[in-house]
Structure prediction request, 164 residues.
Amino acid sequence: MGGGGQQEHAARALVQAGQMLPRVKLDGAGGPRPLSGPGHQSVLVVYLHPEPCRACADYLDEVAGTVDDLRQWATSPVAVVPSSRELEAAPFPLLHDDDEARRQLGIGRDEAAVILADRWGEVVEVATFGQDHGFPLPRQLVESAKILDLSCGECNVPGAEWRS
Prediction:
């Protein structure tokens, strides 16, 4: 999986598979919340572009359509949206974007990202996207969640690739 855009402002390199998801908290409807999943669940972080755009909103709707499938495979989705966006009702937490979180994750200012981390917070898959919006298909996200849920964390069974 490769990155799609430049990393102009990121002081850190993009978080990579095998690294721990940084412990960042972002504001949501119920107050600050960590990116990590609840309890013993994996987490799928959908990090939208910092400026509201139709393609990102459409993708978020597509991911929302898979929320039951993701949860079946012990994966909790969370979306990080532009701070100008209303935190409307969604089938998963919506958190406001934050420059510090972007820096810690290594996501560039003009990038979106999709990050899958296991129940211990170890990043399994990560991809960034520029204005091309080359997001993984929602069924690919579900397949990755399934493989992660069925694989042994000690054996490091490889995950599915998000390339189409």
Summary: The chain is about 25% helix and 25% strand. The chain has one domain: 25-150. Residues 83 and 96 are 5 Å apart (CA to CA). The longest strand covers residues 75-81.
